[in-house]
Amino acid sequence: MMGPSHALSGAAVWLAGSWALDQFADYQQSPLALAVGTAVCAGGALFPDLDLSGKVTRNQGGATVARTFGVFSLFVAEVMEKISLGVYYATKLSKDPRRNNGHRTLTHTIPFTLLVGWGTTALCAAYGKWAVITILFFMFGLALRGLFDGWAERAGWVIVTLASAGAAWFTFVNLPGGRGYPLIGTAVGVGCFVHILGDMITRAGVPILWPIPIRRRMWTMIGLPNSIALRTGSKTEVVVLRAVLTVIAVLSTAGLIAPSVLQRFNIDV
Length: 269
Ligand SMILES: [Zn+2]
Prior knowledge:
Keywords: Hydrolase, Membrane, Transmembrane, Transmembrane helix
InterPro entries: YdjM-like
Number of strands: 2
Shape: globular
GO molecular function, one term: hydrolase activity
Pfam families: YdjM
Protein name: Metal-dependent hydrolase
Bound molecules: zinc ion
């Protein structure tokens, strides 16, 4: 799947989940908490593809996510790709094929998702203010890059960086700490998981069962069979899938804000 579809799926899942929690568990969120969770989940849904390295010195290549902060994120992608490949070789069994890059390995596993979600919460709790601002800054950058791909491409990474920094600061000043920190960690983790599910409906698949060994393979790729798998960049993805995700996001948002709007105008339903 392409970057923008991943980001959109993260946002749609977070909004739909928030609506379900509001509806069935009576768990309400402030408009700011909802917006932050949605943006962070959209950013988190791009995060796993930070394992696709480009050409740092030429400022080229990489996935959508790697271009968010120019050469800086391209460099991080390079490092992440090498670490992933290292983990692949360190844990590979006799039937796992040889690889020359780490894309779609470590960062596309459930243990990684849990580690990122837990790590984010732990960092926010341990270091407070600066950890929260840094993580929000990073995630907002990814969300902008993914959700407003065309704009981000035209505006360039400097503008994206400045916009993310501004939004991160505003959020930090206005978001109450208590519920806020676990919210950020949960949204990043859910985003990563949604990304893995998104890649699962493509042909190449993801090693979602890692580290469970199956027939002398540790990195069994699980994906849909060729005949029904989603082709990256196909009409089904760019038109149909994105339309469905947008409808889910819009309906969930409407469901979440409609009651308070009606209340403001004193309309009883
Ligand atoms: Zn991916």
